[in-house]
Amino acid sequence: MDDMLAGLRLARAVGNSRAMSSWRNDEVFPGAAVHDGGQLQRSGSVGTYFHPVGTCKMGTDPAAVVDLELRVHGVECLRIVDASVMPSLPAANTNATVRAIAERAVAIITGDEHVPAEPVIGAAA
Ligand SMILES: Cc1cc2nc3c(=O)[nH]c(=O)nc-3n(C[C@H](O)[C@H](O)[C@H](O)COP(=O)(O)OP(=O)(O)OC[C@H]3O[C@@H](n4cnc5c(N)ncnc54)[C@H](O)[C@@H]3O)c2cc1C
Questions:
Q1: CA distance 60 to 68
Q2: Do 54 and 30 fall into the same domain?
Q3: Catalytic residue status for 51
Q4: 22 and 77 share one domain
Q5: Which parts of the chain have pLDDT scores under 70?
Q6: What residues does ligand 1 touch, defined as CB less than 6 Å away?
Q7: pTM of the model
């Protein structure tokens, strides 16, 4: 809760900055009149945005569940091909990202494409 309140205050500071003045309008929710921590907590509303990922993340570190070819570490003949293998939340909606992972899995399984030696998700372009 403390982190969320700090995030809200930071968002307000950015929104109220001079640089944003030409785009700014009145705060819609919870509204500029709501200031103190208790009021903010009571007026708050939180959603997941329905994009959970990463419960079986891909990688080579001890916390990774699948390797770079989507094979489950320590288990033979089992791959995971879904949102759970994303090492972190992508800066994109997850549906198309899952489809891209699935297309990649097809390429890996059929041997149609070279697989990189290191994860590329999150790497600088
Ligand atoms: C309400 C909502 C809105 C969303 N809106 C968007 C959006 O606008 N844009 C976007 O990009 N993403 C959106 N998403 C996210 C996106 O839908 C998911 O990230 C994506 O579908 C995840 O794909 P997945 O293959 O990992 O899992 P899922 O799509 O959940 O697929 C899992 C499948 O496994 C099946 N299954 C489960 N258990 C078993 C079992 N025991 N045996 C056999 N089958 C089983 C399920 O029936 C399901 O078909 C939304 C998600 C939700 C919930």
A1: 8
A2: no
A3: yes
A4: no
A5: 113-125
A6: 50-51, 82-83, 93-96, 98
A7: 0.74
Q: How far is CA 13 from CA 10, 32, 33, 79, in A?
A: 5, 12, 15, 45
Distance 45 CA to ligand 1 centre (A): 24
Distance 94 CA to ligand 1 centre (A): 9
Nearest to 66 by CA among 103, 95, 101: 101
What's the domain range around 29? 2-43
C-alpha distances (whole Å) from 30 to each of 9, 18, 21, 33, 108 are: 12, 21, 19, 8, 48
- 27-43 pLDDT, tens per residue? 988 898 998 888 888 88
- In a shared domain, residues 110 and 93: yes
